[in-house]
């Protein structure tokens, strides 16, 4: 059995005098796709930023490939973790090709120019996300969905061990949601990487994840097999709103009930 890519022990997060989670423990192993679910303000984004080493935990022992996250350099972290934020603001004009190439700089020495293999990786990632025709476009001219796919392409260029995705389906139409996540999760499992993604879309969580983390508003949590947690009663408790599901042709579809059902 492969060793975990990341281990999280005793994770406690507090923000604005509120406990988001306490004593959270789990491993992220090769091939895992972990969905993080919860209401607005439950701490999904805070958790991802903490796992990326960008926010401090109130208590935790987090190791990344056997090294303490807190004591690791940003370059070491960037070689093993890639993060897609909820929203992205481009501060400087650059082409789509140049933006995707930024993903390789974690693997280059200072002032080392990218080589032919790096450029080939960029071309392949843009093709995988359907952006090859936009390679010379200025990123400031892209639509929200095109910019989202560029963010995912940049992560493929970065080639981390763990992808941390905050609402990866933001701005994407249905076709591009499925195509992009098919590409990323398929490649993740094939190459024994891992994905942790926060989402409000229960259907995407059920479609792609093998593990699920539920973050409740009272600071409690549940983590386990997706088939056991992505069920009507658990989700209705999580969102304090009735959730129902249907299963057809091996696919589970979730839909909201009526408020007076609670």
Give your account of this protein's structure.
The protein has 262 residues and is an alpha/beta fold. It has one domain: Rossmann fold (3-Layer(aba) Sandwich), CATH 3.40.50.300. The protein has 9 helices and 12 strands. The strands form 3 sheets. It has a 6-stranded mixed β-sheet with strand order 6-7-8-3-9-10, sandwiched between helices. It has a 4-stranded antiparallel β-sheet with strand order 2-1-4-5, with helices on one face. Helix 4 packs across helix 5. It is globular. The model has no long low-confidence stretch (mean pLDDT 94).
Distance between the termini: 43 Å
Q: Outline, from the CA principal axes?
A: globular
Strand-residue proportion = 25-35%
Domains (count) = 1
Count of helical stretches: 9
Strand and helix order:
EEEHEEHEHHHEHEHEEHHEE
**Which parts are unreliable, with pLDDT below 50 for 5 consecutive residues or more?**
none
Q: How many strands, which pairing sense, and closed or not: the largest β-sheet?
A: 6 strands, mixed
Structural class estimated from helices and strands: alpha/beta
Q: Give Rg in angstroms.
A: 19 Å
What is the average per-residue confidence, as pLDDT, rounded to a whole number? 94
CATH architecture field: 3-Layer(aba) Sandwich
Strand order of the largest sheet: 6-7-8-3-9-10
CATH homologous superfamily annotation: P-loop containing nucleotide triphosphate hydrolases
The total of beta strands comes to 12
CATH class division: Alpha Beta
Fill in the CATH topology: Rossmann fold
Give the proportion of residues in helices. Answer: 25-40%
């Amino acid at each position: 059995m492969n060793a975990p890519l990341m281990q999280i022990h005793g994770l406690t997060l507090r923000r604005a005098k509120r406990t988001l989670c306490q004593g959270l423990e789990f491993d992220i192993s090769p091939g895992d796709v972990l969905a993080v679910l919860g209401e607005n303000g439950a701490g999904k984004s805070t958790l991802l930023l903490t796992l990326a080493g960008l926010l401090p935990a109130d208590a935790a022992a987090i190791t990344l490939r056997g090294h303490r996250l807190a004591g690791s350099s940003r370059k070491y972290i960037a070689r093993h973790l890639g993060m897609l934020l909820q929203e992205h603001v481009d501060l400087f004009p650059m082409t789509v090709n140049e933006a995707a190439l930024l993903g390789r700089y974690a693997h280059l020495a200072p002032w080392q120019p990218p080589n032919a293999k790096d450029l080939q990786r960029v071309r392949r990632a843009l093709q995988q996300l359907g952006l090859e025709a936009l390679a010379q476009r200025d990123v400031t001219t892209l639509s929200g969905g095109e910019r989202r796919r560029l963010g995912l392409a940049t992560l493929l260029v970065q080639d981390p061990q763990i992808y941390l995705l905050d609402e990866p389906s933001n701005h994407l139409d249905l076709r591009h949601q499925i195509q992009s996540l098919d590409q990323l999760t398929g490649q993740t499992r094939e190459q024994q990487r891992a994905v942790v993604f926060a989402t409000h879309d229960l259907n995407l969580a059920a479609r792609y994840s093998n593990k699920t983390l539920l973050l409740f508003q009272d600071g409690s949590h549940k983590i386990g097999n997706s088939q056991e947690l992505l069920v009507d009663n658990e989700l209705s408790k999580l969102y304090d709103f009735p959730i129902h599901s249907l299963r057809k042709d091996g696919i589970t579809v979730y839909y909201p009930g009526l408020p007076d059902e609670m």
